[in-house]
Design brief:
The structure holds 3 protein chains of 3 kinds. Chain A is an alpha+beta fold. Chain A has 16 helices and 21 strands. Chain B has one domain (about 55-275): Orthogonal Bundle (MetI-like fold), CATH 1.10.3720. The chains are: A alpha+beta, B mainly alpha, C alpha/beta.
């Protein structure tokens, strides 16, 4: 009980502290200030190497650091630091003309040297979200013109790399040997619409102010404050006008928010939960994965775990309504225990006397390992599997322990969630890599070939055709079984309007708070 | 009358019999208990079909309370028993053995006293996420040292009595002396410590569950309260938080009353004896 | 002052105290005399509020446990109805209690000096130095740093005395305060009870009539929970009005000849008992050189203190040797040496056999302490209750030695009764004059009176079929009647079981009654007396 009260107290304190925490902000007219709150706090220092490796960390950093190519209100590429660009016929050479009006937050002029420095620096110190290993060479042609040559053709260069790559200030970073430990305010000097005033790590609070010299026009708010708040406290604060936007309101609270007269921006996140298989264990064969899929009732998951406020995910990795999705009929693996049993029997599995599935007379337990955030879903899933006749050994562990188990391949099933948005380039990471959030699927290599082929595509249409094949193959092969596509919610007031891109922010972050909403 | 010799050890028999009955009841109870299934009726208020309502994934709260009962109470009782057993063994060794064995045990107890056992408990719990058996072992192993000194003092006092010296002279081993002479006479203290242990262990089980440091599949009153925290601002907190909380309080009060009663009983017995 | 009016105490239906009334003014001492079981100790405890029970009003149903009625004011506080805090403050500041010297009354983990310091701190008497206070009560420097384990009964009593008297209580309750003191220390103790008695009200509970006569101004005779007679000391002693008082005074008058009215069943005919001188002759007649306890050149020391220096003696079977010595001279240690509980540092203690060589009792050459060993010696200790497991029944106490002897190596003991056990137990009880009914067999050892318990200890010793008994102050904690019975039992055993008996005591009368030879134990030597 004590803990309960302390949580409550903390939330209320959060509201009360607002004014004190940003004493400077008080001098600013309320109409000139935007206050953003989110459920979880501290995204790290807002600079490329030190922000936390998650969506919000990247997005908040993007308010400070512009990229060569930006996104318009529909998420399509538009000029940003680069005012124009051209690609050679072979697709290997990119010539970028830079915007001459750009200056760094400290007033230093932005030149092609900074871009060149960024390429070199990031090759030496790789940036976690974007790899530029494919860049063979660059040439500074004039102070505001640079030519970049690739090792091999990359169809996603613009929409995935150049849109996402933050450009570093040469005069700041050239002396920094270990950028991961560079935490001074200076580290946050970028070219973006807002400048960092203060960062309080302990409370996860940020205070940003307008970059008056921004080349893309005068940003809408004089100040931008970001901090952590519990949903209930945030709703109260929003009704009293202290907070303007709350990112990721729990779906349960939609009614409360609407009752309080707030606007609710809800969107299907395309950040689905999916069932991960151990591809070097029981689920090596696609038939086994399919059999398991038929044993699962995804509608029940939606109804129980999400109380109906989510969608059943599409099984071909890409989700309906996103930029790269091709409309087609894919197997939906609607719950069909009889079929699942059939397929298992064909695989040599038998139900033992105890009614549990096994092979050669021995019950085989499925090791189902997942982290605490999936506790509810795992409980419901394991009950479904148990009802079907599987012996399930469910373990719910800390995230680090789950990752360790995945790495050791000491599991059969697991739950993960990650974005399906972004350029098809990102699928490499999400399907084939060893990362704990990846499917870690190799199969017969056909799928990987497909993705490599789309990189070489010369036209968008060709690319789209290959991605469509990938989509079909994914639904057939089931590197992982897409379960639920949850709905995400942003609560906001009239002063700000969230925007959702069907391709996600930058490399595919499914959030409705791109920097566009901070501009007029 | 004479055939009922060594009836003084009846207390031990009573305890063991009581425990056996408890275990039997627990098994019986569990086999009749409906399974703690998820269902479509999520966050339902108490009704005729769900007397205490349902939680966020449609599990019946009453079933949860009953499922958690042995996971809380039985764990506490068995952990206490284990701690007490260890304490008696250690205290007896420290009191009877001379030289380095006693010194070793006493230093070990000193060291364990210096280290806050609750920290050790939390650390290990966070590490291994104990289940039913794990919790018994963990709580038993982290709390036995509390009683060693007091038990040792009692055993020392009893062991210097002449009846023990007499039995020793008659060729009785220390095991015999301990079992027949010493332990029966410190029995009131042992029962007192046992009940006190049950209370503390219950709090520990509930605490670990509440902090989410137990195996998440193990339903305890503490873990039910933890799960309820997400709905604190909703009316659902009423039927999610209150029932496990009240059960916990009720059980602790029960243990307290039992302790009082035992104390009074053994005082009365001692008075009869003197 | 203490004022008691119509005080009654019940346990369930059974009345323990029945309508007692008396007043003790400041400067006065009231002696309560009577036999064990008359309710003396219960009176002390109810006055101190030490009994767990409740006040009972007659209009309420009778409670199950202890309950009482009446009034008992001590320094204005009604001890029968006061709440715990009041009781505590009265007990702490205004009242002192001196009980029989039991080591249990002291904390085994504190030294004597620490006890004193603790008491002084509690009463805020920091001006007084603890060691000076101890010396004042005849507790020599050498004892100050000892623990309770290292003290003799007399020394413990002196420590308790000092602890009770130094805070200068307004009321003092003395419960058999001199029972375990030797004559020298007894005189000192009596002197300290007298000292300052004008400033307090004293209740003396005792069976020692001499003590009662010396100390008290008023005497009450307690019999079966009633004050059968009450009056000024001299008047009561010189002209008792009640039969019971008369018989009590007669017992206490030092009459050693056992009257025919004694309840001890004896197989011996009355004429044989009546004349002590004849016993001696019998013993001497039989005292051939054949069997006996032989102590050869024993030297033993505890720390720096030498208890025995190269002492030898021989006690033939069927005779009694009394060793008389002051408190603290090492009697208890000697008793333990003689019975093999401890091994002497040099020298040997053996039982000389007529034919096949000797049985070593206590020596380095023969290992005698192993299961199944036929014990040669048995010890009868000062405090019988400490020698019996509280929770054993009478039958269990007596059956234990046989079971231990019959079992080979098992360490948990046998549960099943041996054949003929019940008969054995009853025979043993008969030997020492205890009842043989089943109800008595089933009684817990702790419910026995001191005299019964001591006889039970003797019976248990007999169960081992020992060659000799060593009795260490066997009667000092017992009342007059019980003492007489014990001495009689010991005497019977000596004569009929041909046992050698070593009596260690400061009780000259007892020594005189039992012993064939007497030695004085002074300065670590045994001297003829």
């Amino acid at each position: 009980m004590a803990m309960t009260f302390s949580i409550l107290k903390k939330s209320f304190l959060g509201v009360g502290l607002l004014a004190c925490a940003f004493g400077v902000a008080q001098e600013v007219e309320a109409s000139e200030r935007l206050v953003m709150a989110e459920r979880k706090g501290d995204r790290g220092m807002l600079a490329p190497y030190v922000h936390h490796k998650n969506g919000p960390g990247y997005i908040f950093t993007s308010y400070l650091f512009d990229t060569l190519i930006g996104q318009d209100d529909a998420g399509k590429p538009i000029p940003a630091l680069a005012s124009s660009w051209s690609v050679s016929k072979d697709g290997l050479t990119y010539t970028l003309a830079l915007n001459e009006a750009v200056t760094w937050h400290d007033g230093t002029a932005f030149t092609a040297e900074d871009v060149a420095f960024t390429i070199e620096y990031m090759q030496k110190h790789p940036y976690s979200f974007i790899s530029i290993a494919n860049i063979a060479s660059y040439e500074v042609m004039s102070p505001h013109k640079i030519q970049v040559t690739l090792k091999k053709r990359d169809a996603g260069m613009m929409t995935s790399k150049l849109v996402s790559l933050p450009i570093l200030a040469k005069h700041i970073y050239e002396t920094i040997e270990t950028p991961a430990r560079f935490l001074e305010t200076k580290a946050a000097i970028g070219t973006g619409p807002y400048k960092l005033v203060r960062y309080e790590k302990a409370q996860g609070r940020y205070l940003l102010e307008r970059n008056e010299a921004y080349y893309g026009g005068r940003p809408k708010y004089e100040q931008l404050a970001i901090f952590k708040m519990a949903p209930q406290a945030a709703l109260k604060a929003m009704t009293s006008g202290q907070v303007d936007l709350y990112n990721r309101l729990p779906v349960e609270d939609i009614d409360a928010a609407q009752k309080a007269g707030l606007k609710v921006f809800r969107y299907v996140s395309h950040h689905p939960s999916r069932l991960i298989f151990n591809h070097r264990g029981l689920f090596k064969d696609k038939a086994m994965r399919q059999a398991l899929a038929f044993a699962i009732d995804r509608q029940a998951l939606v109804d129980i775990v999400y109380r109906g406020k989510a969608e059943i995910a599409d099984t071909g990795f890409l989700q309906k309504g996103t930029a790269w999705y091709s409309d087609m009929t894919l197997p939906s693996y609607a719950a069909d225990p009889a079929k699942a049993a059939d397929m298992l029997t064909q695989q040599g599995w038998r139900k033992g006397d105890d009614g549990q599935w096994g092979k050669a007379g021995k019950t085989i337990a499925l090791r189902f390992i997942t982290s605490k955030s999936f506790k509810k879903m795992a409980t419901v899933l394991s009950q479904q599997l148990t009802a079907f006749g599987f012996a399930v050994e469910l373990r719910i562990l800390e995230k680090a322990a789950v990752n360790a188990a995945l790495k050791k391949e000491d599991f059969d099933l697991s739950l993960q969630t990650s974005s399906t948005l972004g350029d098809p380039d990102s699928y490499f990471h999400r399907v084939f890599s060893k990362s704990p959030k990846s499917d870690d699927y190799q199969g017969d290599g056909k799928m990987k070939e497909m993705l490599k082929k789309q990189q070489q595509a010369t036209s968008a249409a060709e690319r789209r055709a290959i991605v469509k094949e990938f989509q079909a193959l994914y639904a057939e092969e089931l590197p992982s079984y897409m379960l639920i596509n949850p709905v995400w919610v942003v609560a906001h007031t009239d002063r700000v309007q969230p925007v959702f891109f069907d391709s996600g922010i930058a490399f595919g972050i499914p959030m409705a708070i791109p920097k566009n909403i901070l501009m007029p | 009358m004479v055939t009922r010799f060594y009836g003084t050890l009846k207390q031990w028999q009573n305890l063991l019999a009581g425990l056996a009955v408890l275990l039997f009841l627990a098994v019986l109870f569990l086999s009749f208990l409906p399974s703690y299934d998820v269902g479509y009726n999520t966050l339902q208020a108490p009704s005729r079909s769900h007397w205490l309502g349902t939680n966020d994934i449609g599990q019946d709260v009453l079933t949860g309370i009953l499922t958690a009962l042995p996971n809380t109470v039985l764990v506490a009782v068995l952990a206490s028993l284990m701690a007490l057993f260890l304490a008696i063994v250690m205290a007896a060794n420290a009191a009877i053995a001379k030289g380095w064995v006693a010194a070793l045990i006493l230093r070990l107890v000193d060291i364990l006293h210096i280290i806050p056992s609750i920290l050790v408990l939390l650390l290990f719990a966070a590490w291994i996420q104990p289940g039913f058996l794990g919790m018994i072992l963990l709580i038993g192993l982290t709390s036995w040292h509390d009683d060693v000194r007091v038990l040792r003092a009692l055993i020392l006092r009893e062991r210097t009595r002449e009846n023990v010296a007499f039995a020793r002279q008659m060729g009785a081993g220390w095991g015999y002396c301990l079992w027949r002479h010493i332990l029966p006479s410190v029995w009131p203290a042992i029962t007192g410590l046992f009940v006190q242990h049950i209370r503390q262990s219950t709090m520990k089980v509930a605490g670990l569950g509440f902090l989410g440091l137990t195996d998440p599949r193990l339903v305890t009153w503490g873990s039910m309260m933890q799960d309820a925290l997400d709905y604190l601002h909703m009316s659902a907190a009423l039927w999610l938080l209150l029932p496990p909380g009240l059960c916990l309080c009720l059980f602790l009060l029960l243990a307290l009353a039992l302790g009082r009663r035992l104390e009074r009983y053994s005082l009365a017995e001692e008075r009869d004896l003197s | 002052m203490i004022s008691v009016c119509d005080l009654s105490l019940w346990f369930g239906e059974k009345a323990i105290l029945d309508g007692l009334s008396f007043d003790v003014q400041k400067g006065e001492t009231l002696a309560i005399i009577g036999e064990s079981g008359g309710g003396k100790t219960s009176l002390a405890r109810v006055l101190l509020g030490l009994i767990e029970g409740q006040y009972w009003r007659e209009d309420k149903p009778r409670p199950k446990g202890f309950h009482w009625s009446g009034e008992a004011h001590i320094e204005g506080v009604d001890m029968l109805r006061a709440d715990k805090a009041d009781l505590k403050s009265v007990r702490g500041s205004k009242m002192g209690l001196i009980v029989q010297a039991l080591a249990d009354a002291l904390n085994p983990h504190l030294t004597i000096l620490q006890h004193m310091q603790e008491m002084l701190t509690i009463h805020g008497m920091t001006a007084l130095a603890a060691d000076q206070a101890l010396l004042q009560y005849n507790i020599p420097q050498a004892l100050h740093d000892r623990y309770v384990v290292g003290l003799s009964g007399g020394e413990i009593q002196r420590v308790l005395l000092a602890l009770a008297l130094i805070p200068k209580p307004d009321c003092l309750i003395l419960d058999e305060p001199t029972a375990s003191l030797d004559p020298g220390n007894r005189e000192a103790a009596i002197a300290s009870f007298r000292q300052g008695s004008q400033q307090r009200a004293q209740i003396l509970i005792t069976h020692d009539l001499d003590l009662a006569r010396t100390l008290s101004d008023q005497v009450g005779v307690l019999y079966c929970g009633r004050l059968v007679e009450q009056g000024p000391t001299e008047q009561l002693f010189n002209a008792p009005s009640q039969n019971y008082t008369r018989s009590l005074l007669k017992l206490g008058a030092g009459e050693r000849v056992l009257s025919g009215g004694s309840s001890v069943p004896r197989k011996q005919n009355a004429s044989a008992v009546s004349c002590p001188s004849r016993w001696k002759e019998t013993a001497e007649d039989r005292a051939g050189p054949q069997e006996g306890l032989h102590v050869a050149g024993v030297t033993h020391a505890i720390g720096d203190k030498i208890l025995l220096k190269a002492q030898s003696l021989f006690v033939p079977a069927g005779s009694c040797l009394a060793l008389v010595g002051p408190s603290g001279c090492g009697k208890s240690t000697l008793a333990r040496l003689l019975t093999g509980f401890e091994t002497p540092q040099t020298g040997r203690i053996t039982w000389l056999l007529a034919e096949e060589g000797d049985l070593s009792v206590s020596g380095k050459d023969v290992c005698q302490d192993r299961p199944g060993h036929q014990a040669t010696a048995a010890l009868i200790a000062q405090h019988p209750h400490r020698a019996l497991a509280r929770h054993f029944t009478v039958a269990e106490c007596l059956a234990e030695p046989r079971r231990l002897q019959s079992q080979q190596g098992g360490c948990w003991g046998r549960r099943t009764a041996l054949s003929g056990e019940e008969e054995d137990v009853k025979t043993l009880l008969a030997h020492v004059g205890l009842p043989t009914e089943n109800a008595f067999l089933a009684r817990k050892a702790s419910t026995l009176s001191g005299g019964e318990a001591q006889r039970l200890v003797i019976a248990r010793a007999l169960a081992m079929h020992p060659k000799y008994l060593v009795a260490d102050e066997p009667t000092s904690s017992l009342d007059m009647r019980a003492r007489t019975r014990i001495l009689q039992v010991l005497h019977d055993l000596k004569v009929h079981h041909n046992l050698a008996l070593v009596l260690l005591t400061h009780d000259h009368d007892a020594a005189h009654f039992l012993a064939d030879h007497k030695k004085q134990f002074i300065d670590s030597r045994l001297r003829p007396w």
